[in-house]
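A student in our group prepared the protein record below, which I am reviewing. I have pasted the whole thing underneath without changing anything:
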Amino acid sequence: MFSSLMPQRKEFFEMLAAHSEQVVAGANATLRLINSLGDGKTDLAALVKEVNDHEQTGDQIKAKVIERLHQSFTTPINRDQIHSLIDDLDMTLNVLQSVANAVGMYNIKQSTVEARELASLSADACMRLNRAVAALADKTRGAETLNLCKEVEEIESKADKVQHKAISALFQEGANVWQTMKLREFYSLQESVLDCCQEAAKMIEEILIENS
């Protein structure tokens, strides 16, 4: 029984990495969804379901992490940091789910250049975040992990500029009010995915500093 309270060092890292893989899969499905809007060929409902499925799997992994935290005497890194990181990763998936569901809720029939760019930036940031989480257990890869976090933050800054430019364009004279309102909300949701990635990256940086 005592051994069950002393988790293997890799256990938490493996669960965090498994969750971040769901984040990547959800971001890629969202990218395919947004790129497919208006093509008349893609099963959009199937892509929305795919994103929702990844979010549910992420919830299950998060629940296991929390349960294991409560059961364990010791953890390989600060337990509060593990809790915060799984929260940040899970929030990223939650917002990706909101983006996917917003396509139907806002009745968005066509994609835009800006929506595709934000979706691409999100997928890129999630992929780098996944690589950072996967490398977290290996102290010899600290510099690589830190660089990946910095890259996520740079992508978030780029997304801020894309969102600002996209919303400014919506308010040009003669714009359709309803189209402007729903796309403004949609772009904001998309950018929120990058904000969540940035929060997770900052938490990883904090873990690296505390354990260096």
Observations:
- Residues 40 and 77 are 49 Å apart (CA to CA).
- The chain has a mean pLDDT of 93.
- DSSP finds six helices and no strands in the chain.
